[in-house]
Design a protein that fits this description.
Layout: H1 4-10, E1 12-13, E2 16-17, H2 18-46, H3 60-89, H4 91-108, H5 114-119
Antiparallel strand pairs: 1-2
Helix pairs in contact: 2-3, 2-4, 3-4
Amino acid sequence: MDTDIDNLFKDKVLGHPAGLFVLFFTEMWERFSFYGMRALLVLFLTTSLTGDNPGWAWSKEQALSLLGTYALMVYLTPIVGGYLADKHLGYRKAVVIGALLMTLGHASMAFETPMFLYIG
């Protein structure tokens, strides 16, 4: 009995299962976005509003608290996504929906209003 999973592991790319490349690039871009946002978010929030710099002049405690909440959500949402993938969506739909949500979240954080920051 052939299933999609069996066929996925039959296909090889450079001697590795074809699904490994999807996994690798998904994880690579997720880590790129996480560490990039981690590096820039606190700097943006704590820098004062002078000149061309659009910083918000938050205290370090407030900015680090938001960063902690951001990191918490980064590590909690895969649990919810895993449950939805296993019980309702399937892994392909879950990966696509997760990638879209992550992209929309980071894109919304690019706008300089508090509403979009918290949505992201």
